Amino acid sequence: MANIKSAKKRVLIAEANRQRNVAWKSSIKTAVKRALELASGDDKDALSTAMSKVYQLCDKAVSKGILHKNTASRKKSRLALAVKKLAK
Length: 88
Known about the structure:
Layout lengths: L4 H35 L4 H20 L5 H19 L1
Helix pairs in contact: 1-2, 1-3, 2-3
């Protein structure tokens, strides 16, 4: 553990940021899984809503600095490809 007071604060802040980032990434993964489940069904409205939710979460994560913009683009692209493949 750090000895300097400001370093101790930074350790606490870094841990809080890490937990927030993990929560965001987990919510994105959950939304992707939900969209993939809906892709195998026949409810197109729910699927489009789930897809837009994933896109929204990815874009917000980029704006907050949680995900890199290319990572978010890759996730959205792979989801769209998987949904298209399952829809056939």
